[in-house]
Specification:
The protein is an alpha+beta fold and 152 residues long. The protein is built from 2 helices and 5 strands. Helices cover 15% and strands 33% of the residues.
Length: 152
Amino acid sequence: MTAEAPPAPALSYGRLIPVTVHFDDLDALGLLHNARYPLLVERAWAEWMQAVGVAFDGDWAAAGDACNAVKELRLTYEAPVTRPGPYAVHLWLDQLGTTGLTYGFRFCSADGAVTYARGSRVLVRLDATTLRPAPWSDGFRGAARELLRPDA
């Protein structure tokens, strides 16, 4: 008889995106290097963006919602990641404004049960020509609403 893994906790909001920690992501102490957390979160965000049809193909003038910049990043480490393997990033939106958004995240175990780090990132949509804030498209706003935290 094979034991089944316990079911992953149900997420009441947001999306759990799988990520992988590789051996070379670990520092000399065998811990996930602190600079890798934001990189893995960025990869999860980029995967979600691509899944909703937002991708950069090399043409900034045509990039649309993919033309955005990080305004702020906050990150708190809660427990060390000590080995390579499968993990996840739980993503959600705390705020969706006209030209900016704030998304929250947890770097967690693959099933979402254990949190290793948490934080938030503020993004601003930019006009590719002026690099000034520009409105998110209606299509992006519609897709992004699925990530909104209910009490946001």
